[in-house]
Design a protein that fits this description.
By secondary structure, the protein is α/β, with parallel strands linked by helices. It has helices at 17-29, 40-44, 47-57, 74-86, 98-112, 189-208, 214-236, 241-257, 264-276, 280-298, 305-318, 327-337, 354-363, 376-388; strands at residues 10-13, 34-37, 62-65, 91-96, 137-141, 153-157, 164-168, 176-179. The chain is built from 14 helices and 8 strands. Helix 5 links the parallel strand 4 (91-96) and strand 5 (137-141). It binds fe (ii) ion (FE2).
């Protein structure tokens, strides 16, 4: 038996974190330049400029690359890698939600390796092609959800397949993550809720996933406690820096925990983003309670005592008197409490789409770590059950 535990990223947390960051980068890279990978929204909001000033105040030159789309596509990272090489950059700062942070990581690969995105597809053994040293990546999240700032994978949609392609390598992990709560105060309530549900789903799926990882389990439970305690406040009062800070830490913890594994909810969620452009966190929120309910209803015989105990332990964070069977309802109640009231049908998904959605979800690797083994037909049945649900 062999287990491997990894927790290496330096995490700077708090309202002084961004100020300290410039000096840390200067120590390692001299005057750069650093490629600042972000999106247009963060340029418009003045946040990209804020980060640029912090770096320049420490003597670090900055090359701005703000061409990352939501759900980044291959053209984004190809252009970023070209800019990195053309301008002689020595490192990358990813700034934004999961999209710019993931794009920053893939730019780091393409900037230092020959080949196209699909050459590095982790599902086709592409991680073995990441051989030379990567451009160092630093990450500044502006949403509290994906936890990409401590993750070793990145997702970009490939041009040829139109599917989300996972690039994975231990050296993709950012050197420093800056958790600055003041950068997240402008996030609107619905996006705060959706990204928060991504963090919650990471923690729930990691805690339930197969494998022996008590450290990840403990971090996952801690993340769930933080989300349950602070997401409603972050949604209701976006300027509450304490709630915002706790949510940033919860997101980082959720992603730290999911090195253990994820589960079927993420496999079901990914096709909704590629096909309908559904926000990843929202997709998880729409699926998480129903996917757990379906498994309890249809796969009960496959549940071990340990798995039922895990369901119960999560349920009791939401309601101290709850049983394992209460978990889906409690998660649905919590979803409503943070203002997410959409149904799966509102993403644009229809019963006619289910076979193709199920094919794509089944090809996605996340469900292989789900505690209950599910077939392609099972995944189709979960989609159908949610399309039939009324909210
Ligand atoms: Fe996620």
């Amino acid at each position: 038996m062999l287990a491997q535990f990894n927790f290496p990223t330096t995490i700077l947390f708090g309202t002084e974190a961004l100020g300290v960051f410039g000096g840390r980068v200067a120590e390692r890279h001299g005057n750069g330049p650093m490629l600042l990978v972000t999106d247009e929204g963060l340029v418009r909001a003045g946040i990209a400029d804020r980060v640029r000033r912090v770096l320049e105040a420490a003597g670090v030159k900055v090359e701005l690359f703000a061409e990352v789309h939501p759900n980044p596509v291959e053209a984004d990272v190809v252009a970023g890698a070209r800019r990195y090489r053309d301008t002689g950059c020595t490192g990358i700062v990813g700034l934004g939600g999961g999209s710019p942070l993931d794009a920053a990581k893939v730019v780091a690969v393409l900037a230092t390796h020959e080949g196209s995105l699909l050459d590095f597809d982790a599902m086709r053994g592409g991680d073995a092609r990441i051989t030379s040293a990567l451009a160092p990546v630093y990450a500044i999240p502006t949403t509290a959800g994906t936890g990409s700032e401590v993750g070793r994978s990145a997702v970009v949609i490939a041009e040829a397949t139109k599917r989300k392609t996972i690039v994975f390598h231990p050296t993709l992990m950012p050197r420093i993550a800056v958790l600055a709560p003041e950068l997240t105060v402008g996030l609107p309530p619905h996006l705060t809720a959706a990204t928060g549900f991504d963090a919650l789903t990471h923690a729930v799926e990691a805690y339930l996933s197969v494998g022996y990882h008590p450290m990840a389990d403990a971090i996952a439970l801690g993340a769930i406690e933080l989300v349950v305690a602070h997401l409603p406040t972050a949604v209701a009062d976006g300027a509450d820096l304490e709630a915002r800070g706790h949510m940033l830490v919860a997101a980082t913890m959720g992603a730290t925990a999911f090195q253990k594994g994820l589960g079927v909810v993420h496999s079901l969620a990914h096709p909704l983003s590629t096909r309908y452009g559904t926000h990843h966190g929202l997709a998880n929120a729409l699926l998480l309670p129903g996917a757990l309910a379906w498994q309890l209803a249809h796969e009960r015989a496959s549940f071990t005592d340990d798995l039922l105990a895990r369901y119960r332990r999560i349920a009791r964070i939401l309601d101290p008197g709850a049983s394992a069977d209460d978990l889906p309802r409690l998660l649905a109640d919590f979803r409503r409490r943070v203002g997410i009231t959409e149904t799966l049908a509102e993403t644009g998904a229809t019963h006619d789409d289910v076979p193709a959605l199920a094919d794509e979800a089944y090809d996605d690797p996340c469900h292989r770590e789900n505690p209950i083994t599910l077939s392609r037909d099972d995944l189709a049945a979960i989609y159908r059950s949610l399309l039939d649900a009324t909210g």
